[in-house]
Amino acid sequence: PAEVADGHPLAKQWKEMGHRYLAGTLGILLVVMAFLAFRHRKAPELAAGIVVLVVFQAALGMWTVTLLLKPAIVTAHLLGGMTIFALLAWYNLLHRRHVPASEARALRVPAAMALLAIAVQIALGGWVSANYAALACPDLPLCRGQLVPPMDFGNAFHVVRELGQTAQGELLTNEALTAIHWTHRVFALVATAVAAWAALRARAVLPTVSSEILVLLALQVSLGIANVAFSLPLWLAAAHNAGAALLLLSVVVLNFFSFRGLRPSR
């Protein structure tokens, strides 16, 4: 209702239920896609794998609620969504027209390294969000006024624990939250460098894909900086997540063409 304020519990319920309805609709569409894939013999194994992953993703969504936002489950739920998105992109590319380009195979190593780096960075970003550590380093370019602040990596990256707690049930310290944020921030430099290297290597063979990766890298780094500079407004946090998905998509496209020795048809 219009009179319900955004912070009201009812407004939060509508957001949660809206997410569930959209997820359910997507699941139905993917089952239909798999049915048609088997019927027309168009990559049925991949379509079936996507449906299996969707079922597991639904289970993760349920556990996210029933297990009270355990960081490991929340992060796995994010990674599951990103994986489904990536596989759908690959499936879509399989049904488009391309032309042979044997020279694209030389890009396999940098493309795979870029995909791995982006995947790790997304996982680290999910761990930051799942632990509410996005503002653990409130300043730029340093973190709490230091290049390497006091950090607790042992508790920061202990997987099996409750939200906001150590494995022993104690409150998670600021040093642990700082370690989570600092790691995501530092690895962003690694992921950016690797993805930019892969994009530059692809410029002669896949110029459009190369340009898309470079633009999305610049956008994503800018969004990450803006989230810290403006204290994490919701719309910027959502944009940062969307930027990660688009960057992942562009690197998946690079891997598709490089591993299959193709390039887009004119």
Tell me about this structure.
The protein is globular. The N and C termini lie far apart (50 Å). 69% of the residues lie in helices and 2% in strands. The mean pLDDT is 93. It has eight helices and two strands; from the N terminus they run αααβαααααβ. Helix 3 runs antiparallel to helix 4, helix 4 (108-130) packs antiparallel against helix 8 (234-260) and helix 6 packs antiparallel against helix 7 (207-229). The protein has a two-stranded antiparallel sheet. The protein is an all-alpha fold. 31% of the residues are buried. The longest helix has 32 residues, at 9-40.
Tell me the radius of gyration. Answer: 20 Å
Spatial strand sequence of the major β-sheet = 1-2
Question: What level of helicity do the residues show?
Answer: 55-70%
The N- and C-terminal alpha carbons lie at a distance of 50 Å
The low-confidence parts are none
Principal-axis shape: globular
Average pLDDT, rounded to a whole number, is 93
Give a short account of the largest sheet.
2 strands, antiparallel
Short key terms for the protein model shown above:
69% helix, 2 strands, globular, two-stranded antiparallel ribbon, 266 residues, 8 helices, mainly alpha
In short:
This protein is an all-alpha fold.
Strand and helix layout:
Layout: H1 9-40, H2 44-66, H3 71-94, E1 98-100, H4 108-130, H5 153-156, H6 174-201, H7 207-229, H8 234-260, E2 262-264
Antiparallel strand pairs: 1-2
Helix pairs in contact: 1-2, 2-3, 3-4, 3-8, 4-6, 4-8, 6-7, 7-8
